[in-house]
Design goal:
This protein has 15 helices and 26 strands. It is 32% helix and 26% strand. It has 422 residues and is α+β, with helices and mostly antiparallel strands. The structure holds ligand EPZ.
Length: 422
Amino acid sequence: MDKIVVQGGKRLTGEVTVSGSKNAALPVLISSLLTPEPCRYQRVPNLADIHTILKLLDGLGVKIDKDEWSRNNGDLKLQTETVTKFEAPYDLVKTMRASFLVLGPLVARFGQARVSTPGGCAIGARPINLHLKGLEAMGATIEQSHGYVEAKATRLRGARVYLDLPSVGATENLIMAATLAEGTTLIENAAKEPEIEDLANALNEMGGKVRGAGTDIVQIDGVDALHGLSHQIIPDRIETGSFVIAGAITGGDVWIKGARPEHLDAFLIKLKEAGVLLKFDAGGIRVQRNGKIKSVDITTLPYPGFPTDLQAQMMVLMSVADGVSVMTETIFENRFMHALELDRMGAQIQLEGNRAVVRGARELSGAPVMATDLRASVSLIIAGLVANGTTEVSRVYHLDRGYEHIETKLSELGARIERIKG
Ligand code: EPZ
């Protein structure tokens, strides 16, 4: 298994370009199942999770042209003239929960699907009850056995669905399913993330009728068929936030090209409160530091609140801030595993249930640490950038799920970082 080795102490300076959003690309690529026509995508990030979803789509019979994509310009063409299989197998769904999003499109277009339930993952239980509740309301018959969900419907019909929680995945699954249903669907208490707006835009470019994406009530008027499209994936706001923190914590001056600050309001407001200097324009975000980082309290919330996917990275910044920060994780029940590794680097973090009390330390010291999940892995690298000495991060396969060439991007900003093939 590969390791990443970081020598701390270098200020990051210069320009970095943010990649396409993993969490937008996954549902958008899956939505190609909804039409027999060719679907062209630009700025698809070259990530392990994208490879996983392409493997799953290939297994269903989707034609995939990834020559351009593998040459890293991010262009990808998918075409589902038909499917030869209706099953998403356990080995793929267990590695990546987003695979479960094929359920809605398969039932909507082909009337059937057999998808493994995702089970749990490192950061907590990953239930799917809201996905199933919505599909049943739309007329699908759902059976669960042997770890699989089997769903059938002659044709889904529009329904009014209330989500008990603003689940991102359930909102995406049900929007996709509703595009080909008979009649109108209303999803209430829908998730409002920018990735859902990007999915809705793609579906409307295919002839879908999706309104209200990005608000808590989404209306979808079903159509008989969708056509192909050409769509550019939005930039990755979580990668953006990770680079903002890396620039701030090293006292650097970094221009994040292509970033969209409007996707990170709550996060950027908290960074400003912490004393980070931020400048925005249409082309991106410039991050500088001006004096000490101040401790601020953080509570993760559904969008537009502070994103849970930036909690680990923010914890590192608070580990070297001037004061005490109370961080509350309200989305996932086990998303503080990075704290145990940061403690080994000298961070002073007290865990109390879903709350972490972070006392700013004078400095962190480099150490061998272990990545436990995607966002924890990048937080350990950020800690290594500012730690005194050498930090060796193992199990970086977690990192490769969601960050495209991050060691190259960081070294181009001046970091002393290298990947040791293992
Ligand atoms: C998406 O996961 C993201 N993944 C996650 O990013 C992100 O952390 C999460 O949304 C929250 O923002 C992708 O977009 C691929 P949810 P998802 O359904 O859809 C509960 C990363 O690092 N819930 O909004 O799985 C669930 O238990 C990943 O890129 C139900 O109770 O998240 C959780 O507590 C990690 N029943 C909460 O909702 C359901 O049927 C949020 O889950 C579904 C969800």
